[in-house]
Amino acid sequence: MSAQSPFPLEKALLGFLMQGPAHGYALHQRAESELGRIWYMGMSNVYGTLKDLEEGGQVESSLDEESYPPRKVYAITADGRECFRAWVRESVPAIRDMRVEFLAKLYFFRTLNLEGAGHLLEVQRVLCQEQLAELEERADGSSNDFFERIVSDFRRRRIQATVDWLRACEDVWA
């Protein structure tokens, strides 16, 4: 596969292909219009990733002879479906992954009408609460280092805000 980006492009492409076959340009346009608010992917990245996915057996392509010029049309395979379904149901390990990857997972849950979003939200909230508790346990407030204290406070508040947001999402999704 391609070098790991901040967001797994291959999963987004698999998610779009879960709705049906498409050519690379159409996939790029969809990603740009539907996920562009949270993430940008370059056209060359899309084609490179589609090639990697095809080599890995997660997508297959055929030539659309009716278009001019003929275009490759990509379709997801059974392995690709399995890979996507496993990814979309996994929590993200780091808070920084919430802004792009986790929001994309929620997008696909809604768009593909998948079951289990409430469970994912709950698991992610519990994971964040555990991270918050661990951070609070390590930070006993006795540090004399000003920068260390403000960094710790920033991290704690960011995780707490994420926990609050996840609770609100759980209420909306229920």
Indicate the topology.
Layout: H1 9-17, E1 22-23, H2 24-35, H3 43-55, E2 59-64, E3 71-76, H4 78-88, H5 98-111, H6 117-138, H7 146-173
Antiparallel strand pairs: 1-3, 2-3
How would you describe what is shown here?
The radius of gyration is 19 Å and the shape is elongated. Helix 1 (9-17) crosses helix 4 (78-88), helix 2 (24-35) packs across helix 3 and helix 6 packs antiparallel against helix 7. Residues 1-6 have low confidence and may be disordered. 24% of the residues are buried. With 174 residues, the chain is mostly helical. It has a three-stranded antiparallel beta sheet. It has two domains: 1-90, Arc Repressor Mutant, subunit A (Orthogonal Bundle); 115-174. It contains seven helices and three strands.
Summarize, please.
The protein has 174 residues and is mainly α. It is built from 7 helices and 3 strands; from the N terminus they run αβααββαααα. The protein has 2 domains: 1-90, Winged helix-like DNA-binding domain superfamily/Winged helix DNA-binding domain (Arc Repressor Mutant, subunit A, Orthogonal Bundle); 115-174.
Task: Please name the defining characteristics of this protein.
3-stranded antiparallel sheet; 63% helix; mainly alpha; Arc Repressor Mutant, subunit A; 7 helices; elongated; 2 domains
